[in-house]
Amino acid sequence: MHLTLLGSGGDSQTPMPTCDCRVCDPAREEGAPHARLGNSTLVREANAVVDAPESIWAMLNRHDVTDVEYIFVSHHHMDHVGVCESCRPSDARSTPSKTGTTRTRRRW
After folding, report:
1. I need a surface site. Which of 13, 14, 23, 108 has the fewest CB within 10 A?
2. What is the pLDDT of residues 88-104, one digit of tens each?
3. pTM for the complete prediction?
């Protein structure tokens, strides 16, 4: 299995717009590895991503990903599920399936 880290920036991207702190300034000027998007991992063989933060579209475009069949969510915080609802095709008629452990299903 081949994994690609799409982003590892934590709960917010770096640099943050309008911020001029000692972390954001170099990230803006020098780019990667200082500039980072939210947390997400691509499993290309399965057409899957683990976690879908708000910056997932930029991440997928950066890696030329045109098809995502599965989104696995590590935990239900907005920095990991920020765009899950909008990941469905616009013509989708069904809701995404939710599976997991018994404890996970109770939380949903």
Report:
1. 108
2. 555 555 555 555 555 55
3. 0.65
Domain that includes residue 57, residue range: 3-107
**Which segments within 1-108 are labelled E, that is strand?**
3-7, 40-43, 48-50, 70-72
3-class SS at 24?
helix
Cβ atoms of 51 and 40 within 8 Å: the answer is yes
Q: Is 20 exposed, middle or buried (0-12, 13-18, 19+ CB in 10 A)?
A: exposed
Distance CA 87, CA 48 (A): 12
Cα gap 35→31, rounded to integer Å:
5
Contacts of 106 (CB under 8 A, 6+ apart): none
